[in-house]
Amino acid sequence: MIGQRRLVLEPRDVPLGGVRGMTVLRVLPHRNLPTIGAWCFLDRFGPADTRMRVEPHPHIGLQTVTWPLVGEIRHRDSLGSDADLRRGQLNLMTAGNGISHSEYSVGDDPIPLDALQFWVVLPESARHGDGGFERHTDLPTVELPATEGPDATATVVLGEFAATRSPATVHTPIVGAEVVLPAGSTVRLPLRSEWEHALLLVEGEAALSEHAMQRNALVYLGDSRTDVEVTSTEGALLFLLGGEPFESDIVMWWNFAGRTHDEIAAAREDWEAAAPRFGTVEGHDVRIPAPPLPPVRLLPRTRTV
Questions:
Q1: Are 114 and 46 contacting, i.e. CB atoms less than 8 angstroms apart?
Q2: Are 11-138+248-274 and 141-243 equal in CATH topology?
Q3: What's the rounded Cα separation, in Å, for the pair 160 and 55?
Q4: Where are the transmembrane segments (predicted)?
Q5: Where are the domains of the chain?
Q6: Which of the 8 DSSP states describes residue 269?
């Protein structure tokens, strides 16, 4: 068991540059904590008025979870998927042994855009399989009774929360849920004690067990909790993530999640050689080239908390 924790993971600005031309807030991975359950990556891009143009790029060994807050995003991938995504809907792409995709804001002009993007690392049983894409436009919600004030509402985006399950495909015991906390509300969020969890304040104002939360910072709670109390005076939008601690350490570089340096190097070489494992995204004349590997062997990321 990990035990109860209260570790604040502060976001950092990451310039994506190049044809992506965006700066994002990155919360995960953290130098002390590479995974929370199977969640291994969290970016927030926005809020901003922007023309998003993320050209085709590859992934292995993970799922991408795109959760828009404002604006519309067009997803195209090497499986032939072409889908627009908006608030309250989920795009879930499973990379398996290899996939490529692009993400554009809808329209030719800058639009208001804000979204969370997560990666979920795949276990050994799924990471060498075929790729897949799912779009879920009707996700389940659950009412969370308040101990004070109005009740809260949660949308179960991925996995299971409060005895309610998302229809999206998962490969490990996991939870991803958006929680809307009304003004003047105090709610106890139910947790599974054998899982580790973290809570992100997306918008508004909230306190976690009487400690004020910082917007865009992730509060890591560890495990061994059956619930946690959240309170908001003005109202808040939160995102809960967690799950069973992941089965192994991972090597993560660029858009790849693997287990060894050699596996990552082989995937990079395949992308640069336009190998069939990554396919082709229709409608694009350019794609994002892989950066050079660092001059040292990539090592697994290990937790220190």
A1: yes
A2: yes
A3: 33
A4: none
A5: 11-138+248-274, 141-243
A6: H
Token pair 């799922």 is at which residue?
Answer: 63
- Cβ–Cβ < 8 Å for 272, 290: yes
Predicted TM-score of the model (pTM): 0.96
Q: How far is CA 211 from CA 120, 208, 219, 261, in A?
A: 28, 5, 10, 41
Q: Measuring CA to CA, which residue among 56, 54, 66, 47 is closest to residue 99?
A: 56
* DSSP secondary structure letters along 161-198: ETTEE-SS--SSSEEEEEEEE-TTEEEEEE--TTSEEE
Q: For the domain 141-243, what is the CATH code?
A: 2.60.120.10
Q: Using alpha carbons only, how large is the chain's radius of gyration in Å?
A: 19
Q: Which two tokens stand for residue 3?
A: 């035990």
Read off the tokens for 161.
């929360």
Q: What is the pLDDT of residue 16?
A: 67
Rounded mean pLDDT for each run of 10 residues along the chain, 305 residues in total: 92 69 86 94 92 94 97 96 96 98 92 96 96 97 98 98 98 98 98 98 96 97 98 98 94 97 98 97 95 96 84
Identity of the amino acid at 142: V
Helices vs strands, H then E, count in the chain? 1, 26
d(CA 85, CA 77): 14
Return the CATH architecture of domain 11-138+248-274: Sandwich (2.60)
| Strand positions, DSSP E, 137-283 | 141-144, 146-148, 152-161, 164-165, 174-181, 185-190, 196-204, 207-208, 211-212, 218-222, 227-232, 236-243, 251-253, 256-258
**269 token code pair:** 């070489």
